[in-house]
Each structure stands twice: as C-alpha cells, then as structure tokens.
Amino acid sequence: MPDLWTVSTLNRYVKQSLETDYRLQDLRVSGEISGFKAYPSGHWYFTLKDGSAQVNCVLWRTRAERQSFLPRDGDAVVAQGNVTLYETRGQFQLDVVSLQPAGEGVLYREFVRLKAQLEAEGLFAPERKRPLPAGPPRRIGLVTSPAGAALRDILNILRRRWPLAEVVLAPTPVQGQDAPPQIVAALHACAACAPDVIIVARGGGALEDLWCFNDERVARAIAACPIPVVSGVGHETDFTIADFAADLRAPTPSAAAELVTPDQQQWALNLEALRLRLAETLQAHTRDLAWALAERQAQLRGLSPQGQLRSARQRLDDLSARAGSALGYRVSLDRARWRGLSQALSTLDPRAVLGRGYAVVTTTTPTQLGPAGAVVRAAAAVQPGQTLRVQVYAGEFITRVE
Amino acid sequence: MPAKAKPKPTAALDTLSFEDAFAELEEIVRQLEDGSLTLDEALALFERGQALSARCQQLLDTADLKVQQLAPRPGGGYQLQPFAPDER
Q1: A206-237 burial code (b ≥16 CB/10 A, e <16)
Q2: What are the tens digits of pLDDT across the range A371-389?
Q3: Closest residue on chain B to A156 (Cα)
Q4: What's the pLDDT tens digit per position in A185-214?
Q5: Which residues of B fall within a CB distance of 8 Å from A164?
Q6: Cα torsion A116, A117, A122, A123: sign
C-alpha cells in the first residue's frame, strides 16, 4: 500500500524536485506577456504564453526595479529565471530574474499574417459589406456567451432603445481553443432563424481571451453569413479579424446594440409628427371641400329664379342707364340743330329787312285785297283817300293815299 | 347619396407589427395629402389612420423585449426556448 501524504508534504516535495532539476533552473523562455500587473508592493505578476500554452510568472520587487523596460500585454519577451512551485495553490510558476524584449509577438505575427491573407482574398472588401436593415429590426440575433457581461449590456441597451424587437440568443463559449468551431456553429444556427441582423459579441479581456475572434474559421463564417453581422468584441482599442470580416464593427458590445436599433424616443417623435400630418390633411381636405361647396353654391344662386329675376332687373337697370345717356345725347344734338335753324330763321325775319329801311304796308280796312291787314304789293291796289298802315323797323304809323 | 367608402384591405389592428402599422399610416397620410379623394374616402382613411397611430403608440408604450435562446434539439438541430439568464 503506497504512503499516505498530506497536500503540504506533496507540494513541498514537488517544489524541491523542480528546484533541484538543473534544467529547470536558470533557463530562458520565450513567449508573449499577458495579464501583466504591477502591484503596489512592487512585484510584477503576468503570464507568458504562445499559441497553445501559458505559464504563470512572478518578478519580485528587487528585480523588477532593475528591469530596463515596463512590459505590456502582447509584448514578446525572453524571460530568464527558475521554475518553482507556489505551494499554497499547487501551481508551478516561473520566478523571473530578468526580462528582455524579443521583437513582435508570435500571436501578433499570426494576426498580421492571417489579416493580410484574408484581405488579399477580398474577404474584407467594402463592396462585400451588406448594409444594416433600414427600418427597425424585428428580430436580432445574438452570438455570445449566455453568462457574459456583454450579453447583459446588450440586452439592457436593446430594452431601453427598441423593446419591440425579439432577440434570438445563440449561446456559445467565446474563449478558449474550442470556442471557434462553436462560435461558427452558433452563427449558423442563429442565421437559420432569419433575424434582420446578427451581433457577434464578447466583453473585454486579455488579448488571448479575444483570440478566438482572430480565428480564420470564425472570420470566414462571419463573411459568408447571409445576414448582416455587427461585431462588438472587447474594448474600443481591440481590433480582431472578426471585426474586419463583419459588415460593421462596433467598438464594444453595447455600441453594437446601439448600432442595430433605432431610438425608441425618436420613433415616438416620428409617430407624433405623422399624427399631426394626418390631422392636418383631413382639415385641409375638408377646407378644400368647403371652398368648393361655397363656389358651387354661388353658381347655384345665379341659376335660381330669384337670381334670374335679379339679373333681369339688373339688365333693365343697365339698359335704362344706357337709354338715359342716349337720350341726353340726342337732346344735345337737337339743341345744336335748333340753334342752327334759329340762326337761319333770323336771317329770314322781315324785321331784319325793315332794319335796312324797307317798310311793310298793310290795309286798315277790308278791301279787294282781302280783310284788313292785307299786304299791299301793287300801287294799283289802293285808292286815293284810303288809309294804310306802314310798318317800319322801329314802330308803325297810319298814312293816307293822295 | 349613399355612403360608399372604397373598401381597403385592412388587416386586423391588434395583429399588426409596429413597422407594418407605421408604414400603412405613412401611406394613408400620403394619400390624404394627395387630396384626390372623396370626402367619404378621406374620412374612412382618416379613421383608419387614427386607429393605426393608436396601435403604434400602444406598441411603443407596452413593448417588452422578448429574449429567446437556441438550444440543441434532442433529435438534432436547434429549437427556441425562453431565455432565463439566472440559469447559469
């Protein structure tokens, strides 16, 4: 029967074994820095990783103070140090003595290579990008982790901005080596539900946490998706291959939710505007009709018997006015003619002849010429002793024939 | 004069989505603004428009985001089920 050990004894033994293995002491390890933290105590903690593995590292304060540069996540480094065991947790770690930068990180190089390759294939071409639906989406697909903060953020925003939508969540892990094929499967299942738009999202995290969104399979699935895809992966500064393949990149999951939804309040305003137009059109319509009615009524009044009578009366007035003016004209014409005539008459007035010295002789008693007052035109017509009336220009007198 | 409103294909209001109701409302306003309608037609359209706008308002006021999640079906494929965020 084997010995029975306590956990403490086991860990202490493993620690000693590691520390006495000369190959695990004073060795150099190349990898990429991730999850770097400089504690207030002055110690540094981080992990070193490559495409498929990682190891915890610690760099104590006294050594940290001697480092020539402050590492950042993603930096490719060569760490020199000793392998040991953190007994409390039973985790082995690298006790780093010194850090040297080692050019670009392997992951970064892989990122650049894949991006260049897919770009050359035209996977990111602008003409491949599908526009988001113009109207408000009825159904929104979500490809993300059901447990993540990203989902919570997205649902909060959708609830606030466009609660009329229906959300179809295609749950998938969004971290780890197994994630890419599951993300692809979730995307396919989501697209099969025919949403108007799909959001592929993941909250912020260390670079390697986002790594599944730099996977070629994920990028190709997004580009080939028949539904417009909006990516919202990590923070604003994180760019993944999935972002380039998506139809639209949102800086964060929340921003993706905002991008696919209209603002409910804006639509309430649109509705109000439409309601006002509706009321206005009916008013305008009835106003037009009222005018048309008034016009027809006026026409109708003109056709009624009273109207005809009135118009006949008016015509009469008109005629008599015209008659009056015609008469006036006629009168003035007559007056002119009369003046002409009376002038002509005056030239025929016998008195005018008398003015020149002639006289008119008439009888005073009845004679052979006729009754008294007959004009005497011949001397033979009078007898001596007969009295005659002589009319001159100014007055008259009686005379006796000798 | 016998009232003879032009019969319109009018979907039942309470089944209309916001988008459909809004689109029909827009179309009605366009027709009314065009102004070549009889009074009866205009009044009928106006009433329909009012009902549509009330429907839109109601949808805006009472909307509650519906969340479903895809779950693998035992026989293969997926099915939709209500999403309960507290499950995990």
Answers
A1: bbbbbbbbbbeebbbbbbebebbbbbbbbeee
A2: 888 888 888 888 888 888 8
A3: B65
A4: 999 999 999 999 999 999 988 777 888 999
A5: 17-18, 59-60, 63
A6: negative
Q: Mean of the pLDDT values across residues A37-62? A: 92
Residue of chain B minimizing CA distance to A274: B26
Q: Which positions in chain B touch A167 (Cβ < 8 Å)?
A: 65-68, 83
Q: State the smallest CA–CA distance between residue B79 and chain A in angstroms.
A: 9
Q: A302-357, pLDDT tens digit by residue?
A: 777 776 777 777 777 877 777 777 667 666 776 777 676 666 656 556 666 677 77
User: Within an 8 Å CB–CB cutoff, is residue A315 touching chain B?
Assistant: no
Q: Using the beta-carbon criterion (under 8 Å), do B88 and A147 form an inter-chain contact?
A: yes
Contacting A residues, span 177-206, partner chain B, CB-CB under 8 Å: 186, 189-190, 192-193
A142-182 residue pLDDT tens: 999 998 899 999 999 999 999 989 999 999 999 888 899 99
The percentage of residues in chain A with a pLDDT greater than 90, rounded to a whole number, is 44
For B65, the closest of A138, A167, A285 (CB atoms) is A167
Query: What ipTM does this complex have?
Result: 0.73
pLDDT at residue A222, rounded to an integer: 96
B19, B65, B80 member nearest A158 (Cβ)? B65
